[in-house]
Amino acid sequence: MIKKIVSYAILGMGIGSPIFTACLWLGGNDSAGLRDTTAWLAASAVYGMLSLIYEADGLKLPVKVGLHALLCGLISLAVGRFLGYGESLGTLFLGMAPVFILIYGLIWGAMYAADRRRARKLNERLKEKRNDKKER
Fold first, then answer.
1. 8 A C-beta contact, residue 49 and residue 68
2. Residue 37 CB partners (closer than 8 Å, separation 6+)
3. What is the distance between the alpha carbons of residues 86 and 109, in angstroms, rounded to a whole number?
4. What confidence score (pLDDT) does residue 62 get?
5. Which of 24, 58, 104, 113 fits as disulfide partner to 29, beta carbons 3.0 to 4.6 Å?
6. pLDDT beneath 70: ranges in the chain
7. pLDDT, tens only, 89-120
8. Beta-carbon contacts of residue 41 (< 8 Å; ≥ 6 apart)
9. Cβ neighbour number for residue 24 with a 10 Å cutoff
10. 67-77 burial, b for 16+ CB within 10 Å, e for fewer?
11. What local confidence, expressed as pLDDT, does residue 8 receive?
């Protein structure tokens, strides 16, 4: 039940965040915080679209992860540059890379663990169905 609650909460945030952000813009708010929020919200949408890489059948998992991480890292650097987070590309990279690697690793690890758990449960159900058929 908690898993379902969390899933619905995340879905609600995913729908509500862009709507609320658009309402702030339409209401005349143009603060730096709103600009940052909008830029990272857009980057998050691109990260999500880049996740389609994981559905490419012709690539091995390490290639998929490397390509996805590289592209997401480049998007992050572009957003950081746009928002003025560093005086130069070098300082921007040095400032953002550790945070990006940490966040990317945590999210990737959580997604990987969830996929493994889902696969294990599916295999258990399939095994139970096979055993039920054998008993008949």
1. no
2. 21
3. 28
4. 93
5. 24
6. 136
7. 999 999 999 999 999 999 999 989 988 999 99
8. 17, 18, 21
9. 16
10. ebbeebbebbb
11. 84
pLDDT at position 136 is 65
Return the C-alpha torsion angle 88, 93, 94, 98, nearest 10.
Answer: 160
CA-to-CA dists, residue 65 to 10, 11, 13, 54, 107, angstroms: 23, 24, 26, 8, 12
Residue 79's H or E segment, with its range, is: helix 61-82
Backbone angles phi, psi at 56, to 5 degrees: -70, 115
* Tokens matching residue 66: 């490397």
Number of H helices, E strands in the chain: 4, 0
